[in-house]
TrEMBL record:
InterPro entries: DUF347 (IPR007136). This is Membrane-anchored protein. Residues 294-314 have a biased composition (Low complexity). It comes from Actinoplanes ianthinogenes. It comes from the Bacteria. Keywords: Membrane, Transmembrane, Transmembrane helix. Pfam families: DUF347. The keyword Aminoacyl-tRNA synthetase does not apply. The chain crosses the membrane at residues 12-32, 44-67, 79-100, 107-125, 145-164, 176-204, 224-247. The keyword Transmembrane applies. Residues 294-322 are annotated as: Disordered.
């Protein structure tokens, strides 16, 4: 092997290293891409209404197409590489969510299983190539091992992050502190002589739950401890920062080569640190600024529920004021009452349309609600799914829909004041 212009090459070959130098901007893009990818998948599944199965299939097909493009390139191409990372983050998250939500696999078990799978990938990779160095991704086989490890780290990071913030009830605020601190400790370990390869992959796993917790901190309602920016605003903010940094990366690679930003996997020039720091500061300022202009998302719903003011003719939801360990659930009680009003009048089509509001609101609030009381959240989540299934049946039955809605309403009332 020989070195040329900071690029690892093979003599007589057109192959160049296929991954970026690991610098400060790399980590910023990685953290932000996690949130953007997850939010986009949720948008397709819930807001657009494709559902988890269709969304999973679409994302897997797009990921395969992106990876084929990535493998067909002969050198690191930033926009292709980071598109693959975003898509891998989506699919890795979906794999864990499928195991947890659909198959009911414990987060303890899935975290352990993915940790073992990642260890197996590394063992096989090392036995085949005798190196795990990130700077050595210069053949198709090494790149295949690299992306297999990346996919597994996202699945593992999702499981471990959900285990900490949801199953253990730590919440996204604590999650930001915990995972941020662990990444800092990992960086310090690398500075004091720990294996560069080991610390890189540890940090890579940790950035997934950090990105998710950071995204939840920005998107969740103020009632739940968030900044109430909403998923759309947060995604656009993160996407804008990613776009700027990837464009810069593409320009630098075109002009100077992949290693121009820094020397070694954890190094970086002052300019790179400045761009990374500027991105973090811009997000902080924009987040706090936009948050100050947003009121709590439940204020209007709460007022309407209390006064019975509903211009659509929905009966007052005044009797539904559940304030539990989950937080103020009035918004969900209000929407449920509105759906019941339509179903009671045999307007099942109208009920099906209105229940979309319940699905979106419940999904948006999951990160803030679930850690507070996972058992109560799971019960309500199951009953909301029952309502959605009944109303979206090919031939919905009014009596069945009414029964499902009554069960949900009774549960909300049961949790009132608990």
């Amino acid at each position: 092997m020989e070195y040329s212009s900071g690029l690892l090459t093979r003599t007589g070959s057109t192959w160049l290293t296929k991954v970026p130098a690991i610098t400060a901007t790399f980590w910023v893009i990685k953290v932000l891409s996690t949130t953007v990818g997850e939010t986009f998948a949720d948008y397709l599944a819930v807001n657009v209404g494709l559902g988890p199965l269709v969304t999973d299939a679409i994302m897997m097909i797009v990921l395969v197409a992106a990876l084929v493009t990535q493998f067909r390139t002969t050198k690191y191409t930033p926009w292709i590489y980071w598109l693959c990372v975003v898509l891998v983050s989506i699919v890795g998250t979906q794999i864990t969510d499928f195991l947890t939500d659909t198959l009911g696999v414990s987060l303890y078990l899935s975290t352990a299983v993915f940790a073992v799978i990642l260890a197996v990938v590394f063992v096989v990779w090392y036995r085949q190539e005798r190196t795990l160095a990130i700077t050595s991704i210069d053949t198709p086989r090494r790149e295949a091992f690299y992306w297999a490890a990346i996919l597994t780290t996202f699945a593992l990071g999702t499981a471990a992050g959900d285990l900490a913030t949801e199953a253990l009830g730590l919440g996204f605020r604590t999650g930001v502190l915990i995972f941020g601190t662990l990444i800092l400790l990992t960086w310090l370990a690398s500075r004091f002589g720990a294996s560069v390869v080991a610390t890189f992959w540890i940090a890579y796993v940790l950035t997934r739950p950090l990105g998710a917790s950071l995204g939840d901190l920005l998107t969740q309602a103020k009632d739940f401890g968030g900044l109430d920016l909403g998923a759309s605003v947060t995604s656009l903010l993160f996407f804008g920062v990613i776009l700027i940094l990837v464009v810069r990366e593409q320009l630098l690679v075109n002009r100077h080569g992949v290693a121009v930003k820094g020397q070694g996997p954890l190094g970086g020039h002052r300019g790179d640190y400045a761009w990374a720091g500027g991105a973090a500061v811009a997000i902080a300022i924009a987040g706090l600024g936009l948050s100050s202009t947003h009121g709590t998302s439940t204020t209007t719903d709460t007022t309407a529920a209390t006064t019975g003011d509903d211009t659509t003719g929905t009966p007052s939801a005044q009797t539904l004021h559940p304030t539990t360990k989950l937080g103020n659930l009035t918004r969900f009680a209000t929407i449920t009452a509105a759906v019941r009003a339509k179903v009671d009048h045999n307007d099942l089509a109208g009920g099906k349309t209105k229940v979309k509001d319940l699905e979106v609101a419940w999904d948006d609030a999951e990160a803030g609600l679930k850690p507070r009381d996972p058992a109560k959240w799971s019960r309500l989540d199951g009953e909301i799914d029952d309502v959605l299934t009944a109303l979206r049946d090919g031939s919905p039955n009014q009596a069945d829909c009414e029964a499902r809605l009554k069960t949900l309403t009774d549960t909300l009332n049961q949790f009132d004041g608990v």
